Amino acid sequence: MSKKVLIAGAGLGGLSTALRLAKKGYKVEIIEKNSQAGGRLNQLKKDGFTFDTGPSFFSMSYEFEELARDCNIVLPFSYYSLDPLYTVSFSNSNKIYNLYKDVNKLAAEFREEEPGFEKAMNRYLEKSGRLYHDTNVVIKSNYDSLIDYFLTLPKVGPAHIGTLFRSFWNQVGRYFSSKEAREILSLVAFFLGRTPFDTPATYTLLSYTEFKHDGYYNVNGGMYRIVEGIVEELKKENVKITYNTEINDFIAEGNQLKYLVDNKGKKWNADVFLINADAAVFRGKVFKRKNFSEERLDKMEWTMGSLTIYLGIDCKLPEIQHHNYYLGNNYRDYAGKVYTSSEIVDTPYYYVNVLSRSNPECAPQDSESLFFVCPVPDLRYKKSWDDRDKIVDRIINDFSRRIRKDIRPHIVSRTIYTPADWQEQFNLHRGSGLGLSHKMLQIGGFRPKNYDERFRNVFYAGASTIPGTGLPMVVISSRLAAERIVKFTGNEN
Q: Which of 71, 338, 402, 493 has its CA 20 to 30 A from that of 87?
């Protein structure tokens, strides 16, 4: 008889693990708190507009291709590379920097600010490339203990020891001298939910994935096509997904979990359980582990909160690229306050995704679908969001000034998610958008484990466990979790 696996959470980690296991002959069932799959990789349809609500791009496309190969399917969505990757502008300048993958074209963007940019960039990418390839073994491995993790680290090589003790910002500063180059090239650290000043230099490997190794991709029809495609493949494998079902209790016997219990009192049994909720929060909220109590969680380091804005406008913005960053002139000061201040600065930094630029079907004719993301404090530091509309108005006003077009009279659809909304919808601790930060003592073997400390038949997948945040990392986490489940069941399925 096939082993039954119950998966709690239909985010990308849960869906990918479900597909891997179903293809191996396991009987898989998924339960999901919300009314549709995807977790933070989700979609909002409103007033004729389609918006990506969370991740708006992906990189490391080969991880998705590997998932398809492992499952013996054709990748169930299509994508193509974006170039420029994104644009960046500063509030005191009319100049727009286009971040091209081609180093020669990129160097031309910094000709005045950084005359030796091309040579410096090639040196920087060579170093970040070595970091990427040498750390692969750490990123893509399971660890049974801290000792196991420490025994893996020497495989990275002594040449990278120095990066363990530097910040992302300091590492970039070893190659570039101009304010513009340093700030723009360190922006990628924000993708991990912290700032370049408190993100380890190891993560400069992301620059290599940006410019050299792979790039950024648009998914035809929007990012949610990834979710829709995997869900369709799961249907072919008779994997049932039950929505609007939240787990809040459990029943165990010794070191075995017997049932997860939902908010209506229904008991869900299985041979093996996979948790695709936040690995730390679930341990505290459902399993009631003292090490993961709210008080303990508050003392950990979390990523930024996110203020997200979804605007439908009845005009076109042909001069705006797919991905765009709008910065101020106080980068270090802003980074030092953005996560811990109870007040939002008058001119926030923000990102704008124009989904309809590459996917015209996501907006009515002669209209645009705009998605704004602004890093903000989580609910530990800013408890009330009664001023959200005032903050959003400032962002819209600033954006209109930057692009020299007042979009305010053209807004026909407006939706706002604050950290409180993100917490409510996805059980994110204090509204932290990307979960636990990637400081040195919260990565690898120090991150919440992808196997349970007490229950032998419980495992975890997703951004909150190894290897960490980001869609490709979550896909890797699904492989690591599947490997553990196959090993646990002795492949008797």
A: 338
d(CA 160, CA 156): 7
Q: Give the residue numbers spanning the domain of 246.
A: 4-42+57-79+219-299+438-488
CA-wise closest residue to 40 among 476, 362, 477, 432: 432
pLDDT in tens, 229-268: 999 999 999 999 999 999 999 999 999 999 999 999 999 9
Q: Return the HEC string of 317-386.
A: CCCCCCEEEEECCCHHHHHHHCCCCCCCCCCCCEEEEEHHHHCHHHCCCCCEEEEEEEEECCCCCCCCCC
Beta strands 256-262; 267-269: pairing state: antiparallel
**Cα–Cα dist 357/339, whole Å:** 31
Average pLDDT, the chain: 93
pLDDT at 335: 85
First CA to last CA distance, the chain: 7
What number of other Cβ atoms are within 10 A of residue 35's Cβ? Answer: 7
Contact 322, 211 (CB under 8 A): no
Q: How many CB atoms lie within 10 A of CB 138?
A: 19
CB 386 within 8 A of CB 420: no
Query: Whole-structure pTM over 0.70, yes or no?
Result: yes
467 part of a folded domain: yes
Q: Are residues 210 and 258 in the same domain?
A: no
- Name residue, tokens 């191996």: 24
Write the burial class of residue 89 (CB in 10 Å: 0-12 exposed, 13-18 middle, 19+ buried). middle
Is a pLDDT exceeding 60 seen at residue 399? Answer: yes
- Among residues 79, 342, 32, the alpha carbon closest in space to that of 222 is found at 79
The helix or strand, by DSSP H or E, that contains position 241, with its residue range, turns out to be strand 240-242
Give the confidence band of 1 by pLDDT, cuts at 50, 70, 90: low
Q: Coil, helix or strand for 48?
A: coil
- DSSP of 149-207, one letter per residue? HHHHGGGG-GGGGGGGGSBHHHHHHTT--SHHHHHHHHGGGGGGTS-TTTSBGGGGHHH
Is residue 232 a contact partner of residue 219, using CB atoms and an 8 Å limit?
no
Chosen domain end from 172, 188, 214: 214
Domain count, the chain: 2
Q: Buried b vs exposed e over 110-134: b needs ≥16 C-beta within 10 Å?
A: beebbeebbebbeebbebbbbbbee
